[in-house]
Specification:
9 helices; alpha+beta; two-stranded antiparallel ribbon; 13 strands; seven-stranded mixed beta sheet; 27% strand; single chain
């Protein structure tokens, strides 16, 4: 995905979020138990129209909020880096000020495997984007997957979908700890923390006039678009390979020592904040990986003959 693709997708997504298709999708249980958790008594027996009516303007973000939301684009190396870093993010309480913006869109230059979000369901499609919104009682995030736009049957209800549609929702209340790794908010927290550290850089890529016209027609602020990239993109592949080797229990002779988070205390604010410690190479990369220990068993069922005189 290019930065121009991200703006085109945001234009389509904001239009969809501001339409009845979004509430119809929720009414069809497109996000699982999202409605049932909000209205446990009324939801199960309500019709589609009754469910849609439950979503008042106070329950949904207005279209203008999504149009003005920040747009963050993670380049290909950053996608790998944040996927690896999120797996070990400190289990700290979620704070309102730790995210890149109160509300926003995060687009991945290359889709992130679903295993980074739901470890028990590796068969799910890869994730192309995340939207998040900070509300009064916590932060709400959705993962979005890609498929051709059109009308789809969602649990027996026909819903019009764009090229991206929300697939999984995750909510964490403020001041509650969030487990690392397998959900969208962990990815957002890791990216937000990495973006504030020297190993990353941020810029606003040039956007063609035709794409700017799409943004204007959708009432999107092009100046809210920013790209986050690694200053040394080559380290991302090492981090992903090291994370994979650790998950498989392997330690090659020459290997990359994974970067890690330090729960750093800052006396000026009297709080702990996550600080990323860079990884580094260790060992002899010219040697093959050590072979696992083998157990050799000698069988004594053969007859030994004495040598000839």
């Amino acid at each position: 995905m290019t930065p121009a693709d991200a703006i085109r997708l945001k234009a389509a997504m904001t239009g969809w979020l501001g339409s009845d298709h979004w509430t119809r999708y929720l009414a069809a249980d497109g996000l699982g138990d999202y409605g049932k958790m909000a209205w446990p008594e009324r939801w199960p027996s309500a019709t589609v129209q009754e469910r849609m009516a439950l979503f008042t303007p106070d329950d949904l973000f207005p279209l203008a909020a999504w149009q003005n939301a920040d747009t963050v684009y993670a380049d290909a190396a950053m996608c790998d880096m944040v996927t690896a870093a999120a797996q070990t993010f400190p289990q700290q309480r979620v704070r309102h000020d730790e995210f890149l913006a109160p509300i926003g869109f995060l687009f991945f230059a290359k889709p992130v495997p679903s295993a980074a979000f739901v470890s028990s369901r590796p068969d799910l499609p890869p994730v192309t984007a995340i939207t998040w919104a900070c509300v009064d009682d916590g932060v709400n995030a959705f993962t979005w997957i890609r498929q051709p736009p059109g009308a789809y049957d969602i649990n027996g209800i026909t819903v019009q979908l764009t090229a991206l549609f929300p697939h999984l929702g995750y909510f964490v209340p403020w001041d509650s700890p969030a487990h690392a790794g397998t959900h969208s908010i962990s990815i957002l927290r890791a990216l937000s923390a990495l973006a504030r550290q020297p190993l990353t850089r941020e810029d606003s890529p040039k956007i063609h006039q035709s794409v700017r016209a799409i943004a204007r027609n959708a009432n999107i602020r092009p100046e809210s678009f920013r790209r986050i990239a690694l200053r040394r993109p080559e380290i991302a592949a090492h981090e992903v390979a090291a994370a994979r080797a650790a998950a498989e229990g392997r330690t090659p002779a020459g290997h990359w020592v994974r970067g890690h988070w330090r729960n750093q205390y800052y006396a000026s604010i009297e709080e702990h904040r996550p600080l990323w410690i860079d990884g580094f190479p260790r060992g002899d990369f010219s040697q093959p990986a050590p072979q696992p220990n083998r157990l050799l068993i000698a069988h004594g069922d053969r007859t030994l003959r004495s040598p000839e005189p």
